[in-house]
Amino acid sequence: MIFDIQDVGARFYTYISTLYYVMQACAENHKEVIILDRPNPCDYIDGPLRKPKFKSFVGMLPIPVLHGCTMGELAGMINGEGWLGKNLSCKIHVVKMKGWKHGQPYSLPVKPSPNLPNDQAIAWYASLCLFEATSVSVGRGTYFPFQVFGSPELPQDTYTFHFTPQALKGFDKNPLHKGTVCNGFDLRKEVAPKGLSLKYILQAYNSYRQMNKVEAFLTRPNWFDLLMGTDQVRKDMLAGKEEAAIRSAWQKDLNAYKAMRKKYLLYQE
Asked: SS3 for 45?
């Protein structure tokens, strides 16, 4: 089985889950998986690790939101840490890259999916994806998805960028707030975070809280927890904690992951 799919470095980008199931099926059927490795375009290590009770297709592996690995390295980690279960181990062969090392910028020549059309969208993806569990649009139904965010309920005097999601060819047919003007922020000229940023999700939440519309904001709390791989972030947000305090809760686990990750690196850092 040949596996040649471009990941973007975020745990909830489900190509990782596809790799997991391919390896599991091949292990059960005594087949080798040949992985054509590709660069990680968002090569950072950040965010909470997925807790066992939040395992799902958007959180298959107990790794942080930004895992800092290539697909080949993740495959080695899946085998080495015994994550396939049932005492399974998949025979893998990683066709390594030449001339790339961790942290080296990489611009994808082909967009990995319709709503990640460029480098800017990929850079913001991990930080904006949490909005998918809320009533705030991330620009689906525009030509700049995951580069903006907004909703009709955010105050337009503060959120001064406006966009109207539509059914666009090659994009979502029924995007959130279709045909309705959204007030928000345009992040296309902003410097994308080198890691996971909670700045804008907390800012939008506080705007809704000030309007006494918290329930209107967090429309899918269970989905929020699955994306984060834990309920800690949601609970801390609702408790009014600032980003630094929220981040401190996952730092110990993140340090342990960084130490474990080193065993599976195929490229220089």
From this structure: strand
Q: What is the pLDDT of residues 57-105, one digit of tens each?
A: 999 999 999 999 999 999 999 999 999 999 999 999 999 999 999 999 9
- Burial 99-112, CB ≥16 within 10 A → b, else e: ebebeeeeebeeeb
Beta bridge partners of 186: 148
> Residue holding tokens 């699955």?
226
Angle of CA points 229, 77, 103, to nearest 5°: 80
DSSP 233-252: HHHHHHTT--HHHHHHTTHH
Beta-carbon contacts of 47 under 8 Å, excluding residues fewer than 6 positions away, are: 11, 64, 65, 66, 126, 195, 196, 228, 250, 254
**pTM of the model as a whole:** 0.96
- Beta strand extents in 141-231 (DSSP E only): 148-151, 161-163, 182-186
- Residue 135 CB: number of other CB atoms within 10 A? 20
